[in-house]
Design brief:
heterodimer, A: mainly alpha, Arc Repressor Mutant, subunit A, two-stranded antiparallel ribbon, about 60% helix, elongated, B: alpha+beta, 5 domains, 6-stranded mixed sheet
Chain lengths: ~120, ~750
């Protein structure tokens, strides 16, 4: 077992949830999303964000519109669709459950009750 | 100092350093390879490019004159490289050292994964990189080498191994599944312009194979060196100049042509990335740094990991084995089902292969025809001195030989190599050049033919009455002299013509023509007459007549045998204008004649170029058709009804003899002699018939009709009968002397 592998697996699982929770708040530009995550102490490569956004868009979770920009070509601003919102709520519920469970499990300090003690031999 | 180019990047003109552009292009390419299987590939890349464009224009607004390497690298670093995407989805912003170390170890892990955790490499046929069935493309992908190399090897096996390569190919075609494969090599054959002697082919090859430049150079120059040495050797031992043998001959020629073709086919590595591609290095500096770093640091950790890994592997193996047996069981069932459709697929493939084979055979036949044309062109070429007059005709002949026949050959070879190498030409000018050169060749060829046809427009004849000594026995034998003419063998450019050609013994200074025919006619009086009719073509009657009169053809008479020369010589001065000699022998009534088999060695054809039959019309001449037909080695007698075979007459006369009729003594004696070897004669005749059936082509004589010959104006010979014995004695004496 490799610690790196496990870590990246954990991160991958929540990445979509993090992105959706940023976009939920309003129209977002990809580089803004990166900045937002960075400020929350989550570092992400911009290059990994684009494919994720495209995948979510193709799954009708997201929609976008072009906004003219004075600093270059027009920008794509992403926002949640109806479907995306319900998807996000489901994820949120699951996350809360998981977080609770993980939190409870990780913070328990008492030792596991010994099964041999619990079931004394007859 | 760096070159700055302007690129149109998402609708904006961006000034960018050329090297930076290369880095950018490489990066985009690596992305499109990475997302090859992604559904929204175009969109993803488009978004990323868009972001690049935005950042570029921001940079340019801040007083930057152009986009530099550093700018591009910075953006790429924030974007992340494809190889980082899998591992670095998100990194917690812990202490910086932690990220650093995790980055390194993740790099190392990435390297490990490429060896261990990557999906097991499987052999597929390539769907996107194929010429026939994608077998070579798939193999190259599997082995991670240039498909061109696999293709060249396959071609070599096919040609060298009696088609076994083709068999292997077809089997692999049937067996392997097809799949679209990502391009996994960054290595291609280029010509290296930085280090070259002629065109940089050798150094390009050296860079590709990571060998020293001198190795391919030596191989290419080997035939040259060898040729020089052998020419020295030959010049000292034999007085013989091999000429450009080292270029045209065998092995050396192959290498020479290979070099030329690689020169034409391979692109020159001009840009920085092309040069890197030539050496097969991954183009981004980052990855080189990574591999070096991970090699050094990975070594230590790998050593410690090794022990753990072995343990893990042992466990893994146990579970994997169980899994794989289960997997096999589950896969076997659909595999059986698939076999049915597999057979259908195989039949389809076999059909495809069959049609390709047919196409290949046709292409091969075309090539052969072309080569044949080229060779015959070369073969006739030494003959040009006899055919052509003047500078212009010679020039035209050269042009049409080189361009009309040579260009298609070179073009074909180039096309083949290009197809094999999978190189697409960037520009079409080569095709245009080939095409226009060929058209020039075609035009000059037609002009040349026109000029030549003009040379054969008119035909004229000159008649010579040759005085004859009347044979004593009442029988004349016509033979070809067996005396050796000082012409060397008929080995004409490797073809053994075996005297079958109408002109043989071709040399620089003269050609032996054998366009001679013997015609037998009835003599108007009681004496044998010999008339030589010499023909020639020319562009006007005077020239034709002059050329005809210059033919040297003098028969000799010894005893009662007429010896005809083996042929007549024409020189580059007299030119070849289809000179012919017709030997007309007039046989008086009741006298006998025999034409020896050696006369069959003559050939006769005529070239007919007139208004009625435009063009180069060679047909076997049928004029002088009022002569009698004859077979060689058969004795004839001239009767009122024409020539009669002696053997037919003899049966008749045998009947006569039984009745008690007497024949003249001399004839009787002769007939007796004739009888003794008549059985032999018959055997010979049987052989003769087989021969004459083949030679009948050359002597399609006129019908056996009885018309007397009027077209030959035979002046009466002044030879007196009294002079005859002396003359015969004299001649035999001369021939006797000659023998010593």
């Amino acid at each position: 077992m490799n610690i790196e592998n496990t870590q990246s697996q954990m991160r991958k699982g929540i990445l979509e949830f993090c992105i959706l929770s940023i976009i939920r708040r309003g129209e977002a530009y990809p580089s803004d999303i990166v900045e937002e995550m960075k400020s929350a102490n989550l570092h992400i490569l911009e290059g990994t964000l684009y494919p994720l956004l495209t995948r979510l868009k193709n799954a009708d979770m997201l929609t976008y519109r072009w906004v003219e920009s004075n600093s270059g070509p027009p920008r794509k601003y992403f926002s949640l669709t109806q479907k995306g919102q319900s998807f996000f709520r489901e994820l949120e519920a699951t996350w809360n459950e998981l977080a609770n469970a993980v939190h409870t499990l990780a913070n328990k300090t008492d030792s596991i009750p010994d099964s041999t003690n619990q079931n004394p031999s007859f | 100092m760096k070159k700055i180019i302007n690129i149109n990047f998402h609708g904006r003109v961006v000034p960018i350093e050329e090297t930076a552009y290369e880095i950018l292009k490489q990066y985009i390419d690596s992305l499109s390879r990475y997302f090859a299987k992604e559904e929204g590939r175009e969109e993803i890349i488009n978004d990323i490019e868009n972001r690049f464009a935005e950042l570029f224009s921001e940079r340019l607004k801040k007083d930057a004159t152009c986009i530099t390497d550093a700018d591009v690298n910075a953006i790429i670093a924030s974007m992340g490289r494809p190889e980082d995407f899998d591992q670095e989805d998100m990194a917690p912003n812990g202490n910086t050292q932690g990220t650093e170390s995790s980055k390194q170890s993740s790099n190392q892990q990435a390297k490990q994964e490429s060896f261990t955790a990557e999906e097991p490499r499987r052999l597929f046929r390539s769907e996107n990189d194929k010429i026939l069935g994608g077998v070579c493309g798939g193999l190259a992908n599997y082995l991670r080498i240039d498909p061109a190399i696999v293709r060249i090897i396959f071609t070599l096996i096919t040609f060298g191994g009696f088609g076994s390569g083709l068999l292997i190919y077809i089997i692999l075609w049937i067996v392997l599944p097809s799949r679209s494969l990502a391009f996994n090599i960054r290595k291609r054959l280029y010509r290296n312009p930085d280090n070259r002697v002629i065109a940089g082919v050798a150094s390009g090859l050296a860079a590709y194979f990571h060998i020293d430049v001198w190795i391919p150079r030596l191989i290419f120059s080997f035939p040259l060196i060898l040729g020089v040495f052998t020419s020295i050797f030959r010049n000292t031992w034999f007085d013989f100049d091999p000429g450009p043998v080292f270029i045209t001959g065998g092995f050396g020629g192959t290498l020479f042509i290979t070099y030329i073709i690689l020169w034409i086919v391979l692109p020159e590595a001009v840009t920085a990335s092309e040069k890197l591609e030539m050496r097969g290095e991954k183009v981004d500096l980052e990855s080189i740094k990574n591999t070096v770093k991970s090699d050094l640091e990975g070594f230590k950790s790998r050593a410690t990991d090794f022990g753990n890994e072995v343990k893990e592997r042992a466990q893994q193996f146990g579970t994997e084995f169980k899994q794989s047996t289960q997997q096999f069981a589950s896969e076997a069932a659909p595999a059986v089902r698939r076999t049915g459709s597999g057979i259908g697929h195989a039949i389809g493939v076999l059909f495809k292969a069959f049609f390709l084979f047919l196409a290949g055979v046709m292409a091969f036949a075309l090539i052969m025809v072309l080569i044949g044309l080229l060779f015959s062109g070369m073969g006739v070429f030494p003959f040009k001195n006899y055919l052509l007059t003047g500078f212009w005709q010679n020039t035209l002949a050269w042009i049409s030989l080189v361009l009309f026949l040579g260009i298609p050959g070179i073009a074909l070879l180039t096309w083949l190599i290009r197809r094999i190498m999978g190189v697409r030409s960037r520009n079409h000018y080569l095709g245009y050049i080939f095409g226009s050169l060929w058209v020039i060749g075609l035009v000059s060829f037609f002009v040349l033919v026109g000029l030549l046809v003009n040379n054969f427009r008119t035909r004229a004849s000159v008649e010579d009455e040759v005085s004859m000594v009347q044979p004593a026995s009442g029988k004349l034998v016509v033979k070809m002299t067996d005396e050796k003419v000082s012409y060397y063998g008929s080995d004409w450019f490797g073809f053994n013509w075996d005297n079958d050609a109408p002109f043989y013994s071709l040399r620089e200074d003269s050609v032996m023509m054998t366009t001679v025919r013997v015609n037998l006619v009835r003599s108007p009086d009681s004496a044998y007459h010999l008339t030589l009719v010499k023909f020639s073509h020319g562009n006007n009657p005077q020239v034709a007549k002059d050329l005809a009169s210059r033919i040297q053809f003098s028969p000799k008479e010894v005893d009662s045998t007429l010896y005809l020369p083996q042929g007549f010589a024409i020189t580059p001065n007299t030119k070849f204008r289809n000179q012919q000699v017709l030997v007309v022998v007039a046989v008086p009534l009741g006298k006998r004649i025999m034409v020896d088999r050696s006369i069959d060695d003559y050939h006769w054809f005529s070239i007919n170029v007139n208004r009625r039959h435009r063009g180069w019309n060679i047909d076997w001449n049928t004029d002088w058709d009022d002569a009698f037909s004859w077979d060689s080695n058969v004795e004839y007698v001239m009767t009122k009804d024409g020539l009669k075979k002696m053997s037919d007459l003899r049966e008749q006369s045998d009947e006569d003899e039984n009745k008690g009729n007497n024949k003249p003594k001399s004839e009787k004696g002769y007939r007796y002699k004739q009888k003794s070897d008549s059985t032999l004669q018959k055997q010979k005749k049987d052989n003769q018939k087989e021969n004459s059936s083949t030679s009948a082509w050359f002597q399609r004589d006129a019908s056996d009709d009885m018309r007397t010959n009027t077209s030959v104006s035979t002046g009466k010979s002044d030879v007196d009968k009294e002079d005859r014995p002396e003359a015969v004695n004299f001649l035999s004496f001369v021939s006797f002397l000659k023998k010593f």
